[in-house]
């Protein structure tokens, strides 16, 4: 019996590719609805992971300092180190959150996982632009993303002109993009396994 992993229309893998290509031609492309739910997942995970990281940081600080005053002094002495650590933690939180969001979108849309991940990221950009415009026109109280640590935001107060502002913006926009695309591709691969199982069943190939 032919190796199931050898490409070609006469093999189970080849038949699966033919079926997937036909399905993708009809149902492929960016699915904005799936991407929106993926973005909601990413925002929810951002909130949860940020809260967890904050709780861990508070716990570690309390364990290493006997008083609040000592903790404050230590924080001032290690401000630069804390800034670097905070940036790394933020990058990890955003990567994991948007990986989950991309995965949800890829699973829901079934095809074009990278595009679904990109669409999840674009939803974040679209919402950030709308919120920035609202905050500029109606006041900072409408900047609803300000309470979400790590949620992509577009600064409207000139903070982008600082070095830390540029680095923060890069983390907030580039890291989620990478995470969302990788997550979208991972979510799509699940369906390829399901498709292969169906083809194997039809052709009588053992799993």
TrEMBL record:
It comes from the Bacteria. Keywords: Membrane, Transmembrane, Transmembrane helix. It comes from Paenarthrobacter aurescens (strain TC1). The lineage of its organism: Bacteria, Bacillati, Actinomycetota, Actinomycetes, Micrococcales. The chain crosses the membrane at residues 36-62, 82-106, 118-140, 160-183. This is Uncharacterized protein.
């Amino acid at each position: 019996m032919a190796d199931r992993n050898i490409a070609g229309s006469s093999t189970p893998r080849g038949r699966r590719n033919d079926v997937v290509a036909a399905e993708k031609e009809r149902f492929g492309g960016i699915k904005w609805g799936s991407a929106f739910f993926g973005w909601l997942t990413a925002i929810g995970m951002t909130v949860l992971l940020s809260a967890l990281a904050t709780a861990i940081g508070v716990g570690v600080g309390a364990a290493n300092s006997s008083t609040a005053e000592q903790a404050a002094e230590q924080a001032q002495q290690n401000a630069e180190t804390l800034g670097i650590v905070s940036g790394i933690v933020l990058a990890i939180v955003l990567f994991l959150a948007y990986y989950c969001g991309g995965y949800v979108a890829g699973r829901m849309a079934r095809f074009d996982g990278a595009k679904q991940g990109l669409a999840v990221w674009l939803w974040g950009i679209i919402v950030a632009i709308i919120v920035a415009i609202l905050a500029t026109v109606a006041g900072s109280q409408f900047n609803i993303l300000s309470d979400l640590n790590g949620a992509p935001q577009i600064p409207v107060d000139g903070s982008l002109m600082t070095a830390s502002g540029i680095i923060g913006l890069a983390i907030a926009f580039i890291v989620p993009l990478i995470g969302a695309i990788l997550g979208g591709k991972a979510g799509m691969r699940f369906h390829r396994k399901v498709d292969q199982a169906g083809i194997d069943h039809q052709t009588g190939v053992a799993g």
